[in-house]
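Put briefly, the fold is written as integer tokens. One such record reads:
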Amino acid sequence: MKEFRIRAYGRMELAQLYSPELTDIAAYRKMKKWILRCPGLLQRLYDLGYQPEHRSFTPLEVRVIVDALGEP
């Protein structure tokens, strides 16, 4: 298996890494639910400048997500 690298990811691209068996949109919805359910994660992302309408995550946002959810 390929080693996970912290870099900028499209939101669906990152979601697919967590749930490769799902379609892009289903994987994104699942990851979004995980983010909402993880205490403090969404606020931490907002503190970094995250905006839900953006279609990608910065490397720093990816680091925060991976720290909270684990590597895909």
The mean pLDDT is 96. The CA atoms of residues 46 and 52 lie 9 Å apart.
